[in-house]
Amino acid sequence: MMKFLMSKKIKWLSNLICVVAFGYLRLYKQLTLSLIFPQLRMAALNEAYTGDVHGVRGADYACYREARRAGLRGTFRAFLSSRVQNVDSIVRQADRKLPVSNLRGEVLFNSWTEMYNADGAPFPHPPRIYSFNGKNVLTDLSWPHKAVWHGALLNGERALDTSCDAWHSASKDKVGLAGSLKGPRLLEQARYSCDKRLILLCIEATTELFVQRKRRDADNIRYSYSNGEIMDEEEYHNFLASIQ
């Protein structure tokens, strides 16, 4: 009996080691890809959201928090336009020619700039977008509507009065623009009532290497980027302002 229990325990430990090793291997692969072949990673938050995401600032912080919990060190922001922000301006100017990829390194768009040619960011091929916890948003039931909030016109500029009151409203009487991931373009001009729960995307606002260099020049500000801590919302807001 003792020998049987020991055998079961050894098998369980072996499986656990394999799972942990696979997780570290996947993280190592992601980090290596981002350092050798710079890309802007796009991911979805881990659940569907109404149009009330506590504004762009609240959505930015949700992107940062979930990315950090997933072991990602990038500077992620919400893929949203509002009254004071165009979606095409989210990424730092110097990084806009980089390809946009999913979390597995598969290219979604050839470059950030190429997405905004007034044709609504057409998909070069059917998109595979994953959440920070590894789910495919097109196939997972956590997202009943396969559409993405964005609030932008075809060229990436903000669409006035169609952003769920600057992303503070979950009212069925308000509307926000969204694009279907099953359609031909990301910036599809579909109107959804703000009580609908849709996909909320996050995009890496700048490359990881740039952020690391920027941190070395920012000793006068307490950032928790490299020591494993998670910044609070105010700290992250200030951090984003410093890298633009």
UniProtKB/TrEMBL annotation:
Domain Collagenase NC10/endostatin span(s) in chain numbering: 40-206
Pfam families: Endostatin
Name of the protein this chain belongs to: Collagenase NC10/endostatin domain-containing protein
Organism: Cryptolaemus montrouzieri
